[in-house]
Amino acid sequence: MAWPGVCHWGADALARTLAAAGPRLRLPLVVTDAGTWGALGPAVEAALAAVPGLQWHVYDGVVPNPAIAQVRAALGTAHDLDCASILAVGGGSAIDVAKAVYACLAGGLEADELATPRGQAWLNSAVEGTDPLFIAVPTTSGTGSESSSAALIQGDDGRKRLYRSLRARPSLVALQPDLTLSLPLRPTAQGGFDAVLHALGAWINTDPSPVGKAMALQALRLCMRALPDVLRAPDSLRARADMQMGAYMAGLAIGMSKVDAVHAMCTPLESRVHMAHAEVLGPIFSVVARHTAQTAATPYAEAARALGIAASEDEQQDATALIEAVESLARLAGIPLRFAGLALSAQDAAQLASQAMLSASMPINPRVLAHEEIQSLYLQMAA
Q1: What 3-state DSSP class applies to 265?
Q2: CA distance 161 to 159
Q3: Domain 185-382 in CATH: superfamily?
Q4: What Cα–Cα distance (Å) separates residue 347 from each residue in 275, 283, 311, 372, 378?
Q5: CA separation for the pair 257, 215 (Å, rounded)
Q6: Considering the entire predicted model, what is its pTM?
Q7: How far apart are CA 144 and CA 165, in angstroms?
Q8: In which band, very low, low, confident or very high, does the pLDDT at 341 lie, cut at 50, 70 and 90?
Q9: In Å, what is the CA distance from 357 to each residue of 114, 253, 370, 381?
Q10: Do the first three CATH levels of 6-180 and 185-382 match, i.e. the same topology?
């Protein structure tokens, strides 16, 4: 079990994080997207300018569902300008790109080497005291990338690849709730729903980590309470703070315990449909959770009872109550629970099932799913 770096949470988290960085913060490359930087760049630059003698450069070319081409571009900027540390500002896409750039800088790698044995050897190696500084400033509450060991990057072939590395995880994190206020309501809702399913997936799976389970349950409690509050009162800093911490804890949970078949089946399909992550998760959850709970209701029922959603003696009834509560949250967030116009042939579904079975989260789904079952579930979603 490996804990992440130091996390500062609250109104002045960014300033405290930069102060904690000390002399390790040298000529950082800010990795972000144009929209986030347009809205929050002045505030972040004001905080950076308060650090005596600090200079920095900005790469703002990150886009949703980031590709390896953006890693190459950001890494080229870092090399050209002799950047010595990384500061990620944005949502999961920016932090994932920053993780990949950081790994390349620290490991002396090119972007295309990340998937090679040499790149994997560095990603799987232990943190060293000489590693450069990596700070994450999440401006969304969703993926938990700031606290997890994973980064999802699309390859040149269009397929998304999951890179895991404790060494490439941020060593300092600033959770400052007011930095999430500029995010429009739709991506706020989508990110929050993703965090809910991260927490739920880490809770229900069969991984035995007791700390991961504790993190997952508390993250689920925070996210399911805070997300409706954020959607009803977007300017509530209390709700924003709870949502940030819930997403952060969910990221910790999946780093310790992974997730379940919902996310395992999501990644292959995302490469095909090019939709927002949460809009792929919603329909998959509705089908897969109900199928899983038919023979593995216990973890769903336990969560329902712990969260006060249900309290009967019937596990199936309580499991259904939890699933319906998550579906209600999806509707509140404007996330569909059915795909519109998804066309899959039996061969398509078989290929997706083969890819989903490669996920480390698939074998620990509480109901073990065979290839034929997964194929059938994909076809059910497309019906």
Answers
A1: helix
A2: 6
A3: Dehydroquinate synthase-like - alpha domain (1.20.1090.10)
A4: 21, 20, 43, 12, 11
A5: 10
A6: 0.94
A7: 14
A8: confident
A9: 22, 21, 9, 17
A10: no
Closest CA to 177 of 248, 242, 87: 242
Helix (H, G, I), strand (E, B) or coil at 171: coil
Q: How far apart are CA 380 and CA 383, in angstroms?
A: 5
Residues 154/66, Cβ–Cβ less than 8 Å? yes
Is the alpha carbon torsion for 366, 372, 375, 380 positive or negative? Answer: negative
**Rounded Cα distance, 244 and 121, in Å:** 32
Q: What is the CATH number of domain 6-180?
A: 3.40.50.1970
pLDDT in tens, 260-281: 999 999 999 998 887 889 999 9
pLDDT tens per residue across span 119-160:
999 999 998 888 999 999 999 999 999 999 899 999 999 888
Q: Is residue 265 a contact partner of residue 357, using CB atoms and an 8 Å limit?
A: no
Bridge partner residues of 33 (DSSP):
61
Domain map (residue ranges) of the chain: 6-180, 185-382
